[in-house]
Structure formats: C-alpha cells, structure tokens
Amino acid sequence: MQNIILCGAPGCGKGTQSDRIVEKYGLTHLSTGEMMRAEVASGSELGRLISSYTGKGQLVPDDVTIRMLEKHLDNLPAHTKGLVFDGFPRTENQAVELEKLMAKRGDKTALLLDIRVPEDEIIQRLLLRGKTSGRADDNLETIKQRLIVYHEQTEPVAAFYKARDLYAAVDGQGAIADITQRIEAILDSIYC
Ligand code: ADP
C-alpha cells in the first residue's frame, strides 16, 4: 500500500485533511504533533523536554521525534493499511530516516502531498485557531517562529521527494471540502 505524507506550513490544514482521508480510505493517521501534545499532557519527563521546544516554536530534536514515531510504528496492528504521516518528516534528516523505516516495513517511500497556503492567510488562520485551540503555540510570536523554522528546515524536504518523483502540490486555499476533493483526486488514482 502506498503511504502518504501531508506536509505544509503550520495551519495549512494537514490535520483536518488527514482526518477526512483517513476515514474515506481506511488509512492510519500518524501525527507527530499529536503524539507530542499527548506526551506533554502526560506530565512525563520526556513531555517536559518536548514542551521546551514546542512552546518556543522550535522543532523537537530529530532523535527524540524519530524514536517516538518508531515506537508508534512498532505498535501498529497487523492489519494496518496505508499510513498518513501528518507533520513528519519536517527535516531532510527525518525524510532519510522515514525512508529507512518504510524499507524496514517492506513499504515503498511515501508520497508527499504539499498543501500550499499563502503566509498571510496562515497567520490569520492560526490566530483564529488560537482563540479556541488551547494550544500554547498558537500565539503571534510563536507562529512567526514556527514559520521561520518551516521555511528554513521543512520546505527543503520537498526536494527529497521531487527527486524520487513522489511529490504533488495541492492548493490549500478555499473551502475544506474543496481541498479534500483535490487530495482525493490524487489518492483515487493511487488507491482505486
Ligand atoms: P503545526 O503544523 O500547526 O505546527 P503540529 O501539531 O504538526 O502543528 O506540530 C506542533 C509542534 O510540534 C511543532 O511546532 C514542533 O515543535 C513539534 N513537532 C511536530 N512534528 C515534529 C517533527 N516531525 N519534528 C520536530 N518537531 C515536531
């Protein structure tokens, strides 16, 4: 089964779109951001380490992130169909490691769907989300830092997938259902 990655700037809608396509195609959702928020909420030592990065809009170090993802991959039920990675890989090193993890499972390298949204809209969306999300990182200062990190560390990841012909850009503007349709048009050609 072809695994996919939903990637894009913070607030591009990758979490929302993951939920929709996971449901439609019976895939398994793996969000490193959600894994991290759960660890922080548990009050563990690891959670405190993680929040020292997420609270400042910085990426959590690769070794911590990859170990956390690997633990979730190891615990997947045997009948798992395709996987949807949400918010991972976010660095070139994570892309290299993910390819190795996929090979270990006997899976091909995942397909990257890059959800594109202009930066001014991203900031407006995240400020709006911050009013209700309760997320410590949805404030203007941290949003700006997350965008700097995105441009410096995550945008270059696209080249890794383009070089393997495993990259598709998706227009992330407009109604949620319209964006889902654009993603489904790509996935239908893979899964049907
Ligand atoms: P968003 O895309 O809106 O920033 P996420 O839930 O994907 O939301 O991520 C929230 C935060 O969790 C990130 O800003 C980062 O600190 C941390 N994080 C999530 N995924 C990764 C990752 N793959 N590598 C490093 N840090 C991550």
How do you describe this structure in short?
The protein is an alpha/beta fold and 192 residues long. It is built from nine helices and five strands, in the order E-H-E-H-H-H-E-H-E-H-H-H-E-H.
Radius of gyration: 16 Å
Main sheet characteristics? 5 strands, parallel
Q: Could you tell me the strand content as a percent range?
A: 5-15%
What is the succession of H and E elements? EHEHHHEHEHHHEH
Structural class: alpha/beta
List of distinct ligands in this structure: adenosine-5'-diphosphate
- Summed over residues and divided by their number, the pLDDT gives a mean of 96
**Segments where pLDDT lies below 50 for 5+ residues?**
none
Strand element count:
5
Described by the principal axes of the CA atoms, the overall outline is: globular
Number of helices: 9
Provide the spatial order of strands within the biggest beta sheet: 2-3-1-4-5
The helix content is 55-70%
Distance between the termini: 11 Å
